[in-house]
Structures are given as structure tokens and as C-alpha cells.
Specification:
alpha+beta, 5-stranded antiparallel beta sheet, 7 helices, 17 strands, 25% helix
């Protein structure tokens, strides 16, 4: 199975299945001599872990990271960093009812057709539990980056949107509520709506906005490895993501060039930032901001039609522990993937530019 690694210099490879013994990964290319803040890594894992509030899956996993290599006396050694996250609360029996059927909008059918076999327990390798490994690597990547701020937050749930631009929000409030929305009045509406959806046995999607600040000029490698192209790839690799836009995004398609151009100030900054901090695929020093769209979770705790491996359509009800809305737990995952992209380009720039 290919496709389990991301990055060029700062590279993450992950392994493991949702209900196997453990998830884990190997990080290559992390510079030596970095004193890791293990509390920061733990905090990031707590932000992603299941069972953290009443509006997420109630699977109980502490998600404690065990580092196996690449560290000595708390510092990185420059060698591969191996880590493992034990799965301590598997309930494989929750999935025995789907071993001979394919759930709609899941990877069940295509995995079995592609590989000739599938791990039906929680989706196996296709489960969003794999993202725990990304959060570990992202927490380390954040410590590689100098003075760069990465802040993601939930900007919509269903039809409930934050109506303010990110510049008018106090992003320090993001962690003050279960939805991870820095607009507290909107957060309350979102939380109540998710609870209603959960009672119905249904699910709902949403969007996450991410803001990258203090990014130096020069990150990105045109023509095929543009910064926004890699950010898009990283975000679209996250489970349930259906869309990515940066800067003016799709709204820019409705504008005239005279409206859209970011005119310069004398110091090289721009008066507006519809470019989203990236021009020609290279960071320009302005804030980078983008939005990621997540579909509703595909497992419903209500009856729906499924396909069996004998090509029959039957009615089946979902079981197990699932998020009614994935976006609150996806916030640290979006931040982690952004950190991996920036750390990779930051190290590439250091090899290409002695003044960087």
C-alpha cells in the first residue's frame, strides 16, 4: 500500500489501523538539537482525542504518545523519530454487522475492490484515527518553525456561520468551548445544533478556517510545488474533507481585476490581502488564510440502505461510537497538516538560501 508518507525533507510516515494494537509513525528530517516541549505535544493530542465532550464520539482513548527513537535527554538527535499511540479502547464487535456489507460514502467498497481485503473494524486504515499520528508530527513541526503562529477554528456548522472576518475575532477564545469557535454567540448555536443532530441519529458537516501568521517571504517551490498547492493537498488528505480555498477563493471568480488586485505599500506589504498571503505559489509575508470544508460523517445511527458483498441492497443501522460533527476535533488536525507543510518548505528554503 503506497501513499502513507507526506513531506520532502520534513517527512512523516504513518502506520496502524483504528482497532489494531496501535497507531504510529516515523518522522524523518527533523533537525537535531531541538528541546521538545512534551507538554505541548500532549496538549495537541488532548485537543484531537475522542471522548473530550458531549458532542463528539465517546470512544475513550487517552492518546498518550510513546517515543521510541530519535530523542536523547529530551532533545532531537537528527535521526528518525519513531513513536506509537496504543489503541486501548477497541470495540471491534461494534463493527461485526458490516463485515459483509459496504456502508454508503465510506471507503469500505473501494478498499475491498482495490486490495482484495479490508479491515472492517472502524474502517481500519481508512479511519480518521490515523490523524492522531499527524497531530504528533504537527506538534513537533510547530517547534521547528520560528515564530510562526498557526490558528485554526470552526467557522461554520451546517448553515450556521461566523459572520465576522478573522481579523475581528479573538482567536484566543477558540479553546473556550466544545465547538472550537472563537465567536461565543455563534459557538452556542453550533453546539445546540450538533446536539439536535445527534439526537436524530444524523450528522452534519462544517468548515474550518486556518490563519498562518508571521510566515516569512519565500516559502513555496514553483511550479508544481507551490505553497497553496501543497496546503491544498495536505488538507484534502484529511478524512472527510471535500473542499479547500485560500485567500479570496471562489469569491474571487466573481470579481474584476481592479477589485481583486492587492496594491502595494512602500514597504512591500499590501493594502489588501485577497491573495491570501501567497503570490506565484510563494509566501509574501502577509497572513495566509484558508478554509477547509468537511462533509457530514457518513455513519448514521439510523437505518439506511447498504450494499452487501453478494450485490444485494439491504437496510442497516449504524452502530458504534461516532462524531455527529467532525469539525471540532478536526481543528488540531488542520493545524498539524499546515505545520507539516510549512516545516517542510522552511527546511527546503534553508538548504536553497543561505540567508534564510
Amino acid at each position: 500500500m503506497a501513499g502513507n508518507s507526506y513531506g520532502t525533507l520534513f517527512k512523516l510516515t504513518t502506520f496502524g489501523e483504528s482497532h489494531g494494537e496501535a497507531m504510529g509513525g516515523i518522522i524523518e528530517g527533523c533537525p537535531s538539537g531541538i528541546t521538545l516541549d512534551f507538554n505541548a505535544i500532549h496538549t495537541e493530542m488532548q485537543r484531537r482525542k475522542p471522548g473530550q465532550s458531549s458532542i463528539v464520539t465517546q470512544r475513550k482513548e487517552e492518546d498518550e504518545v510513546q517515543f521510541l527513537s530519535g530523542l536523547f535527554e529530551g532533545k532531537t538527535t537528527g535521526t528518525p523519530i519513531g513513536f506509537m499511540i496504543p489503541n486501548t479502547n477497541q470495540k471491534s464487535d461494534d463493527y461485526s454487522h458490516i463485515k459483509d456489507s459496504y456502508r454508503p460514502s465510506h471507503a469500505d467498497y473501494v478498499y475491498e475492490k482495490k486490495y482484495g481485503i479490508r479491515d472492517y473494524r472502524g474502517g481500519g486504515r481508512s479511519s480518521a484515527r490515523e490523524t492522531a499520528c499527524r497531530v504528533v508530527a504537527g506538534a513537533i513541526a510547530k517547534q521547528v518553525l520560528p515564530n510562526i503562529k498557526i490558528n485554526a477554528f470552526v467557522s461554520s456548522v451546517g448553515e450556521i456561520f461566523i459572520e465576522k472576518p478573522y481579523q475581528d475575532l479573538d482567536l484566543s477564545l477558540t479553546e473556550s468551548n466544545a465547538v472550537r469557535c472563537p465567536d461565543l454567540a455563534t459557538a452556542e448555536k453550533m453546539e445546540n445544533y450538533i446536539k439536535e443532530i445527534r439526537k436524530e441519529g444524523d450528522t452534519v458537516g462544517g468548515t474550518i478556517t486556518c490563519v498562518l501568521q508571521n510566515v516569512p517571504i519565500g516559502l513555496g517551490e514553483p511550479v508544481f510545488d507551490k505553497l497553496h498547492a501543497e496546503l491544498g493537498k495536505a488538507m484534502l488528505s484529511i478524512n472527510a474533507v471535500k473542499g479547500f480555498e485560500f485567500g479570496s477563493g471562489f469569491c474571487g471568480a466573481r470579481m474584476k481585476g481592479s477589485e481583486h488586485n492587492d496594491l502595494y505599500n512602500e514597504d512591500g506589504t499590501t493594502k489588501t490581502n485577497l491573495s491570501g498571503g501567497i503570490q506565484g505559489g510563494i509566501s509574501n509575508g502577509m497572513d495566509i488564510y484558508f478554509r477547509v470544508a468537511f462533509k457530514p460523517v457518513a455513519t448514521l445511527i439510523q437505518k439506511q440502505e447498504v450494499l452487501t458483498n453478494e450485490s444485494k441492497l439491504i437496510e442497516q443501522q449504524g452502530k458504534g461510537r461516532h462524531d455527529p460533527c467532525v469539525v471540532p476535533r478536526a481543528v488540531p488536525i488542520v493545524e498539524a497538516m499546515a505545520a507539516l507543510v510549512l516545516a517542510d518548505f522552511y527546511l527546503i528554503n534553508k538548504t536553497n538560501n543561505s540567508n534564510f
